[in-house]
Structure formats: C-alpha cells, structure tokens
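Lab notebook, bench 4. Still working through the backlog of constructs that have no structural model yet. Next entry is a single chain of 516 residues. Request: give me the structure tokens for it.
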Amino acid sequence: MLVRVKYKTEQKYIKITDVTLQSFLKLGCSKFNIKEELQKDLKVYDESGTEIEDDVFEDLLKDPNCGILKLVAIDETQVSPDESLNSSADLSSCDSDETVIMPPNKRQRQECKAESMIENILLKKPGGDRVIKEYTRTKMLTDATRRQMVNILTAEMTETHGTSPPRDVRELYAKGIVSLFPYLKDPYSKNGYEHYYDSESGSGYLAWRLKTIQRKASTESPKPSSSSCLGGPTSKRPPSLKIDSQLNEDQIREAVSLMKHSSDEALVKQKMRLTFSYRQKMVHDPQKCSDMLSVFPRFKDVKGLIEQDFVLLFGESTSAKFLEKWPTAFKDKVIHQSKGLSHSREVQELIEATELTVEENQDEVDLLGWDSDLSSLILLLHLLPPSAQGRKKPGKMSVTQATGYLVVFIKAGTNIQEHLDSTEDRRQPYLLAVGTARSRIHAFYIVVDKVAIPCKAASSLCAFDELFKAHFVFGTTYCESLRNLYTFIQTTIYKIDIGKVKESPRVAELRARFVQ
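Model written out:
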C-alpha cells in the first residue's frame, strides 16, 4: 500500500506492508531521516489537522479519501515559511508539551471556501456526483466529464452573478476546482488553475463557456486581451553557451565565403559556430530572414548544424530532454490517454501501431502505417487537436489534415525537388519522410521555405526532435494547426519559456494529467 506523507516541506510516498501506526512511524523516520531525539514525540495528522491514533490508523488508510498524512515532531519549535503556506493546518509546538493547531491564514481560508463551494454545487446539481465519483476513482477527469463539470459550474455562476460574473468570482471557481481536485492542478503555471480561468488573458474552460453563454444571451462579448505573450521560437534570446570569439563584419564575410566552398565538415561546423550570433540577428530581422538559407547554404548538406545552433541557444541539457523523456516518461502516457478518445478507425490504428515493432510483424506494420514512435506523436496531436480559428477564418481543421502539416510521405525514388516545387508556399517547417512504406523510412528531411534539409538521424523520433529545434534555429512560428502540440512539447518536455508563452487550457490540462 502506497501512502503520501509530508514532513516539514518534504513530501514522499511510503510503501506500507504492516498496517500499524508504529510500523508507519518507523518507516517515516527512515524515509525522512528524522533525528532520533525527535522520534519519541512524533505524531501523525490528517489534512484537517486531526491527530491519528493507533486504533483508527488502519481504517483511515482504507479510506480512498485519506489524502496526505503529516508527520510532526512536537518538540520542533519552528515551522518553515513554505510549510506554513502550503499546509492546510500548520502544527507547531509551544512552551508546554501540548500540540497547538495554528489557525489557517487568509489564503488557506479562501481555498477552503472555494473548495467547499465547488463541492456543494456538484453535490446538489444533477450529474455533479458523477464528476466527484470519477475523480475519486481515477484521480482525473475525461474530456466529457470535464465539460460536464464546467457546464454545471458556469450555470450556477451565471444564475448567481449574471452572464458576466466578476473576475474574482471566476477565479474563485477555478481555484475551487483544483482545491477539490488537486490532481487537475497544473504545476507549471503560476497558480495552477489558469487552464480553467486565467485572469490576465481572459481564457480558460470557464471563460470559454461563459462566452458561449453570453453569445447565446445576445450580450456583448468581452474584448480580447491586448497583453502580448513572450516566448516561443520567434523570441530573441541570448545564447546559453559562450561563443569562443566574436567576428567583425569582414571576418563574417570571409567565414561565410569559406563555408560555401569548403569540403571539410569540421571546418564548416567551426565557422558556423563562430557566426552563430550574426545568424540569430538575421533570423529576427524581417528584411534578412528570408535570405538565411542562401547566406548559409551548408544547412542543406552538412548534417547536425540545426542541433549545434539549438545547443548554443539552450545548452546540452535542454537539447537532450525530448529524446531522454519521450520514450520513458511520455509515450506510454500518451497511448494510455488516447485509449479514452472516441475510437475512430484512425486512432485505433495508431494505437495498434505503437504496440508493434518491425521485427514482430512487418506486414502488419506496413498495413497500419507509421512506426511506433511517429504514431505516438500523431496520437499526441489527437489529444491536442487544432483549435478553432474564429468566425472570420476557415473552420476548425481535422487532425488528419493537421498531420499533413507535420509529416509528408513520399516513395523512395521520387524526385524531391519535384515534390518541393509542387507544394504550397509555406514557411513553417515540416518533415518529409522518404521510404518504401510509412513504416520503412530511409531518410527524413526538414522542409523550410521549399528547401529540404537532411536530418542527422534516420529515426522518426530524432527527426521530430530536429524538426522542433528547427523552429528556434530559423525563428519560424509554429504552424497554427500544430500550435497546441508544439507548445506542449516546448513547455512540458523541453521546459522552455514556461509562463511566458501563451498556452491553451487543453495543453495545461493534459500536462496536469501527465506530471501529477
């Protein structure tokens, strides 16, 4: 049995086999390295600040709503600032041997009020109990249940406060949701509830539903936020690594000329490194950015130059994150979440493709399409589909259409230049996969401005990693239909510009499911 336990500001899981209080205390002392002189006065409290004694300990652990247990040594006279902010009931000692439960601060009282309000609304409204039961059972909400919860809460909100509730009311509801359902909290955002309501941008699930209600009531829609979001591939940023030396204009011209004619790849990479700062100025200059590949044409034939520039921007550690984390921490979660989607034939085939390898059944792999890794990335696109573009733009793009903006397959032997000449003029990079079948790709290329840049490796995962990095190296915006996908990869896996880039609530919600 796994139990979440907190001691001071640390929080860990403890595995219990002997369900007794004394055994639990011994395990807790070992897990948190509690000093021997404090162990004799160690006590256990639940989230409400109630002491747990031996006769009720086993029954409490069997309760699915047990929550986090807190270890407190009553001889400790100080509580850290973090603990006093985060605990629902702060415990400290006084001059006597009595344990005193300190009164909650203003923020804690507000969170308790918000949590109680949301729980009461869901319990009294039809369908609300199903939301609570699903979360209790799975520690998450499906998209359908989340929509039902939002509908219930916004209906109550508008009944009480009208169709344009004050900002603090909307924030209170959002805060109450993640207080009642802590696993829905987004740990990467400022408050954890911005995907339900973000007061700065006026976005989030609650805000979107309110806008729908307002339109139906023929009331004036709120003006979009004028605040601009920083971050992303088009943002100017200093290099993460120190460049060996800076070149003057004459030296830059000399290096550019030398690279165009040199057959020494090591020399080309060295000169590309030295001209990195000049290249970054080019990509952020509207007058010069379109000349990038004509001034630095060696991107077209020397593999690894995209990777080198990305490392100079963000460092080796950040550059390695996707290939390290996707296979181990994210791929299986994407597949698991995808099984909860409406089972279209395309989604089912992608799920099956992720579970096959070339060695197991080549005929079946060929029949299903892309290999396991690329199939899992397309499943992520199904979990983060294109957003509607608004009434003045074309309707919402399907995931199948959006996939064509991510990767395009052509048969081996096809003239690549003919393919490039036949495509529409689009700046956003995409993958060009060349092979005998979608599951048998011999080479990947990144296409930018109708130029095919060979990928460093032939694996689909490495090719996607390089495709993502190309956006930052060439300073290109994300394709609008793939914005949710790329933003999730950027903030959740690479952890670039967290809190600076604008995210859709769907991105924050999926991240909350994955990282909790």
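Notes after review: The two ends are 18 Å apart (CA to CA). The longest helix spans residues 106-124. Flag for follow-up if needed.
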